[in-house]
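Q: Sequence in, structure out?
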Amino acid sequence: MQMRQVFTSHYRTKELLHWFPGHMAKGLKVMNRQLQRCDAVIEVHDARIPVTGRNYKFDLLAGKPRVLVFNKVDLAGPTVAQQVRKVAAYPERPERHRTSDSSVERGMCGDLLDPIFTNCREQSSSAVREIMARIIDSVDVEALQRDPPYLRLMVAGIPNVGKSSMINALRRVFLGKSGCATTGAHPGVTRAVQTDIKIHQTPPVYVVDTPGVMLPLIETEETGLKLALVGTLRDEVVGHELVADYLLYTLNQHGKFEYTTRFGLSEPSDDIHEVLAAVAARIGALLPGGKLNMELAAKHFVSKYRSGQLGVFPLDDVNQGPFC
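A: Exactly. Output:
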């Protein structure tokens, strides 16, 4: 069957390109104020979208030591870490965007430390410990010479990349305590800045958990669809069937045909209606009167991708960088 080489769909996008809720704009302003109190930043990204998921508004974090954490690497495939490290090691990186409210030109990503990769399913103690080691090694000496000594960190990222989960993992590894920051499977769970969550005893280290902040302008439809596919945009904002159609296109482009066996298709298909009908039949998604529930089928189809059951791979071409 001839597969689409460029994504087109019968489904129409909703107000996708300008989705920037008020709490995100407010959160960005509060982050700017809180940054003055912080000694370093942990910037969390989704490893599946290392380029698309970069919010240029985080340039306001420049000037503080930053650890770049690529979370959910288990869903991005076995080679993405090596590819990102290779691009990040380039001696000459593109200049970052210049913010409209700043008269100072930002540097060449010089405040960023080498990226760390974490698994969203198993927050391994080795990766979590590496985050703290990088932070302590990079902060100004004066911060550790306070009386009493302490550090305050900011955790930042776009929605649903695992910021709160990262904080809970740090607390678990270094304090032996269960979660404190609120987590959820949908974007926008953290809607206000949560301050001074303790994650480390010696020296005392506190974190500021910030709400996920989306790009103020999503430049292309495909950028928005990538963000939606990984759960950064709410599905209902984009449309469940449209997200499912983009997923089908993406699976076919990457040669990931596990969906055929899982949902009883005889061969790969580029027809989202055919695929969702098979999904609905397999899971028994029916409306009153026996009609197939295509929306429920679309939700199920996308959920299987997000849990890694339809193949793991990056959505971005990592060589497109930068992601700092």
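The first strand starts at residue 40 and ends at 46.
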